[in-house]
Give the backbone structure.
Amino acid sequence: MATASHAFLRCLAPTCLLILTGATMTATATASEPTAVPAATAAPAPGALPSDAEGFAFLEGRWRVFHHQMKDAFAAKEEWVDYEGRARFFTLLDGLVSVEELRTADGRPFGGAMRTFDRTQRTWSDAWVSAGNGVLQLPQHGRFVNGVGTWESEEHHDGKRMLARGVWKRVSIDVVTWEQMFSMDEGKSWKTNWSMRFERID
């Protein structure tokens, strides 16, 4: 099995499915859901802290997570699994850092992410760490535009160049979605292999 250089590709192969013992659920489609766009404000000055529209402060708190995940993104036949989990998000340094912790429905650690904001470039670095090995991976980079955050990176699979993308959408104050997808044709088409729907607990 080929490995990706950025494990923000949270799961492309069956070995990543660590939480199948969680409660099975029916995934809720998110494609048609509107995006909650923060109120328009003047462009932040270079060096300013992230604005509400730019930052991850909206994720602060605890969430119920509904996963819809492909067992093996490269298999000839698509097989999907649905399960539930939990998430916590912390905002540090006045919005410059966002920390994510994911757990299974029964409380076992699954993985997390560390996000840091470049005050000059106005972009985020997003690095994934699996509970399986504890290694912080190379980050993806991106930003929010009109309530949608897009992060991209270049990966390789079986010696072939592959583009990876993670997309955050602010549906409402209490609902957020995330999707992971990849492209084997330089971005002409994209294949989603994992989606999450976050519903706020508190």
